[in-house]
Specification:
By secondary structure, this protein is an alpha+beta fold. Helices cover 21% and strands 25% of the residues. It is built from three helices and six strands. The longest helix has 16 residues. It starts with 17 loop residues before the first helix and ends with a helix.
């Protein structure tokens, strides 16, 4: 048997990590504040308990609404040969009866904008895409429902 010897020695350096740790983001997102009313940004806390509806719209993990804007090609303009674009608003994380949510959403939006709204429901993914309405109107709908 041969023994291995090393000719170097090591010494562990003492490091004060408190200066670095204060720069790191928190590992846990804080709980939803209760009874804060409407904040200056327009954010509202969800109702406690949640409303008794056949569907539920879950917020993202940072407590914001799951609303996203999509911009898609719509039609080709034959004169300029450029595509026209359409903006859609996508509402995610709908659990339960997605079609009941779409019906309530469509009635609310058509009453607000006074013209027909085009919607597309993806039941498996729990999403609704809306054409012809602004994102702020969808926010208003979700807040008024209590989610």
């Amino acid at each position: 048997m041969s023994t291995t010897t090393t000719y170097t020695d090591f010494k562990e350096a003492q490091v004060d990590w408190s200066y670095v740790e204060r720069l790191l983001p928190p590992k846990i997102i804080p709980e939803i504040p209760k009874d804060c009313g409407i904040t200056p940004s327009g954010w509202r806390a969800p109702r406690d308990p949640p409303p008794d509806l056949p569907y539920y719209i879950r917020r993202r993990r940072d407590h914001l609404l799951p609303l996203y804007l999509e911009r898609r090609r719509d039609e080709l303009n034959p004169n300029t040969m450029d595509f026209q674009y359409v903006e859609l608003v996508k509402l995610n994380q709908i659990y339960g009866d997605v079609f009941a949510c779409e019906k309530d959403l469509r009635e609310f939006l058509e009453k607000e904008v006074n013209h027909p709204i085009a919607t597309h429901v993806d039941e498996l993914k729990g999403t609704i895409r809306v054409k012809g309405a602004d994102r702020t109107l969808l926010e208003k709908f979700v807040f008024e429902q209590g989610f």
